[in-house]
Every structure is written in structure tokens, then in C-alpha cells.
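Sample entry as discussed:
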Amino acid sequence: MFTTGNTHTVSHHSYSLLVTHTHTHTHTVSQHSYSLQETHTHCLSTFAMLAWLALRVLGLGLCLCAAFLLGYVAFRGSCHYCGVEGEMVPAEDKPGTDHDNLVGGMYLGELRDMLKKYLQDEKIESTVRRVSRTTHPSGSSEGTTLAAEILETFKDLHMDHTWTDSHYATLQFPSRIQRNSLWMVDLQGEVLEEIPLEDPDSYCAYSATGTATGGMVYVNYGRQQDFDWLQSAGVSVVGCVVVMRVGGGVSYAEKVLLAQKAGAGGALIYPDPADIPQDPRRLGLNSYTAISEHVHLGSGDPFTPGFPSFNHTQFPPTQSSGLPVIPAQPISANVASKLLSQLTGPVCPRGWQGRLPYVRCVLGRGFTSADGRRIRMGVYNTMTPVLLNNIFSSLEGRIEPDQYIIMGAQRDAWGPGAVKAGVGTAILLELARTFSNMVQNGFYPRRSLLFVSWDAGDFGNVGATEWLEGYLSMLHLKAVAYFSLDQCDTHTHTQVEHPKHTGQTIYSQAEKEGAAGRCGVFLLNCVCVSLQDSRPYPFVNTPLDTSGRLQEVLGGRLGVVGRSLGELVGLMVLRLAHDHILPLRITTYSHTALQFSAQLNKHSAELQARGLSPQWVFSARGDYSRAAETLQEAILNSDVQDETMTRIYNTRMMRVEYYFLSQYVSVVETPFRHVLHGRGEHTLSALTEHLSLLTSDPRRFNEALFRRQLALFTWTLQGAANALSGDIWNIDNVF
């Protein structure tokens, strides 16, 4: 059981809470979901690196979202134009706002002092050790024990409510009877050689099962541009087993889907030393270790897409369109080296060369041996119904208890999971303990605080998504913000004290040290860890993700860094729990739409030649910009003591992201429905990619499809503008 150690003293000094500010370069959107994640981040040197370690190693993504959590309606991908301007949470308080007002007889400055006083390094560090003491995947006895301990910890904190939300979901695990395998076979299919996998417990959850036999092709990172290059070079992957390296800005699920679309028969994924350190003496991955990850291009239980896995509820048999139909398996660098060293064929293009020893980079399809050998892979994973337990605890708001500020962290892990699950869980429990102490010492949150320990995160946020699907109609009205403690934060913040420089914030110290240029950071399941020589943390989703290694990476300062991150989240939660008007900026999407309008304008001649006019998009963008600016101005000039009006304004802001969910696609077939951050033909990214074909490859431009894409995006944007305008009599649009 985790100890709580509540204390009950507080000092009384008043000063205004200064708000941490966030940059939103890539938004993982749900309603107000602004995931702080991008594929390229600043790499800072010397002391500033500790700040970056704090914001990467601990896997902290401060996703400000409401209602549609954890990627159910929003893909964790890039929006080309998003986040260029401003922040969704203002960087500083404006004069005349209510941030100095008393909250239950206490000033925000006092509350900030309380928060800093109650957060304890030692508890965060001990919880990380406790959570990561052993492997604890969903459905295991270790995972069940950990869930019970967290439930008891919440109960000991004297929260207002603590409960368990349970679902049966279908998860995939390696078979206990037959292990996944690789062989070299001859033309008749007779086995010439079995290739030991070295890390037999690694697997790709939700892979198709069965065997695939054929030639082998190296496809770099397995990105769309990689497959496009192979096609242009006349190298076919049809019927082949493709070998690709981890990284490149695409998930395992995307890699396998793209391989499947290209006609491949199977997929092998390995960590290349060029991307992931392989030297254990320098905190690198062992060369015999593979990295597991799920390959379901979706979120939640893939056998109940779009609806919850409630117990005993009979749904028609169906499955997610994001499940692959080809087998996939992770392999170690050693196995990849053995395979790729036998390949023959055209030399790889520039930039595809990894750092595997004794490997000359060629594409394949054949092998150097004259016996006509081929590769065969066998995947025998089994589907298993598992009882998932999401653990909830809450502190009720005193004025608007039906408005929820939610903090959540993944609990399960395939390995020990120090970074994957330990740190997020530790910060979650420490924040719960801290806010409970604050409430017992005079803090009255305006809105309710929910603390959630999610199950089955490694399988694609299954526990969180099933809960979301079950309460979707309620949450889109009541969820104000969601703070994910699992994601990667790639930006510094202004009001959290630097863990190594007393009296300085993380942001100020980073500015003082200066950026040592930019470097690409490898993203693995959204946990970004950069070591001091700019290498990524290599241990996520492996048996090596232990608290000891994490401590070594952080120079023994795990507790201090964890406390700094807990303070960062706590400050933002305080602001959201206190302010009459939610501190959310809604004008950022105006700039996003403007950027797209500029792209359309570049192609105006080609569009007009086809009888297409971008004027509707320009008009919708203008309407949205005016509606957002008008609402922002009304908020600035409003009386924050007018509870009715503030409630109206807050409701309109809370639903901004909801307005950008496409109404024209099926939630069953298209779980990522957000037009700016989703996946599919309904999205802005798909529309811009299609638009680019006008100049890059006019023969592939589908005018009928483009007309449909443009019309549906335009009306979604116009609908958002109309909804943001407020009452119907305030809308003055000309269509």
C-alpha cells in the first residue's frame, strides 16, 4: 500500500498566481485537448538539459482537453498549421481579471504556497519504485494487485468519492503454447534455419496471426514517403516481409498499415542504433532487446469500435477497421543485423543507412545465398477477454460540481514501466494527496477534480476509451480539462521552479543557457526521453524500463524532477479550478484556418479552371475568426461575478473542439473525427495533401473527391463559427 502522510498546516501570504504557459505545436485534441508534442524539440545543453529531462523523461504531456479524451476523436498526429500563433492557456494574467480574488477565504498566492508545501519528492520517488518493481500488464496478478493498492491509497486520502469502473475488453497476448518465430525456408517451404528471436516475450499487440513467407525488403522507417520511393524505384514489396526500423515519426500501427496497403505479407520492426542507443555501458538498449507496441490503428477495444465494452451487453459482432490483416513482430537489432546482412538488391538511397554492424544497406528482395531461400515469420498471439479496472477518485467542486477537471495516468506496463507508468502514476497520486490536504486546510475548488488511474494503456488507451465511450453524452457537457500524465511535453514552462537552480523557473534557466541548436527526438508511444548527449531514452516498452535506470538518467534527481512536474500540473489545475472564466484561448484556430486559406489561394488558378471556388472557405474562416474574437472581447469586458453569464461563456469555450468533430463520418469506422487533428479523408491534412496533387501529380487529383472534402470541411468550420457565435439571433452570416 502507498503511504499518504497527510499534513494539515498552511501559511497565509497572498499574491497573484502567475500562470504557466504552454505552446501548442501538435495538438492531440479532444475537447480542449492540446497535447504538447512534436517530432522536433529543442535540445538544451548543460544545466538546461535537466529541465528538458524533466519534461521528457517523465513522459508528461499536459493535454488540456475536455470531453473527448485520449485520442478517441483525435489522432495523435500533426496539423500542419496548428499552434503557430499563441497559446490556448494565456501566459500571464490580464489586468482586471479575478485571479487575485479570494477562494473560500484564501488567495491564489496562498494556494500556490500550499501546493508547493505539500508536494513531496520522496513520495514521488518511492511510488515510482513501487509501481515499477515488476512487470504488470493488464490482466496479470501483478496488475490486479497494483490496482487494489491504488484504490486503497485513494481511500486513505479522504477524497469525496472513490470508485472502480470495470469493463471486459479483448486484449492480445503472446501464446503460451507456441512462440512467435522466424525461419529461413527453401523454395519448397522446408525449413533451412530457425532464427532465434532473442527477446521472445516481445510482440505487437493486435497483430494478425498466422504465417507469412516471401522475399524480404528493407523499407527504412516504413513511412508513406518510403513506400512511395520504393514504388518509384521499381522495388515491389508485394508478398514480401518488410523490415523497418523504429521511429521516423510514425507509430507501429501506421507502419504496419502502410506496409499492408503496399501489399506486404508481413512486417518486422527493429530498433536501429542510429535512432536508439545500443550501448548498455552508456545507458543504451541491449542489442538483443526488441521493443513491443500495439499495432491497432485506433483507440480502445478494437472489437467494440465506437461503443463501450460494458459487461454483459450484447453487441453485433464487429471489429475496428484499424486492425491489421498481416502479421507483425518486433525484433532486436541483432536479429535485424542477421537478416539484413544476407539481403541482396539495389543499394539504399541516401538517408536510409542505419548503424547495424556488418550490414551493407541494400533493399532486397532476395538473399545472397544461392539456394533461393525466403523468410517465413509466424505470429501466434491469442485474443483474451480481460477485466479492466479504471480507478477513480474525486474532490467535489463547491460552486460548479458538475464541471470536471480530470487528471489521468496509465497504470499498466509490459515491462517494469518506470517511465511508461510509474512516473505518471506517482505524480497522479501525489497531486491527489496534495489537493486533498489543501481542501482540508481551507481550499474550496470551484470545479470538481477527478483523479484517474487507467488500465490497458499499452494496448491503445483501452481502459480510458471504453470509459469515455460509455459516458460520452455526459462528458462533452461536463468535462472542462484533461491532464494526461502519460504524454510527452516538449516545451519549458514559466512558473515552475527549476529543479537545480533555486529561485529560477525552468523556462528562465533554459533561456539563460540558450538552445544548443535543434535535434530530432525519436517518439516512441509518446514517451520522449532525451539523454544529455541528445540521445533518446531507449527503454520504454522493454524489460529495461526500471526506476534504477531512470534514476541514473536523471542523476539521482527523480524525486526532485517529479515534484517540479507535479507543481507544473498543480498550478494549471489551480487556475482552472479557481477562475470564474476558464483561461482558455479560442482564437488559435483562426490562424490555422488562415494558413489553409493561404494554401488555397496559391492554387486559385488551378481551382478556378476546374470550376472550384475557395470563397466559401474564406467566408467560413472569417466568420469563425469574428466569432472567436467577439467572444474573447465579451469575456474581457464581462462581470465575472455574474454567474449566469460566466457559465454561458465557459460552455461555449468548452465546446470549441466538439464543434470540429466531423458530423459526416461514422464513429465506428472513423474514431479520429477531428477535422484538424484526426485521420481520414475528412481532415484538413488529407485535404491539403490532395490539394498539393494539383502541382505535384495532376493525374492523381480526384476532382469529385476534392469537391466533397472541401465542402464538408467548409461546413464544419462554418458550423463551428455559428456555434461559437452564441444564440441563433446573433448569427449574421451570408451563405
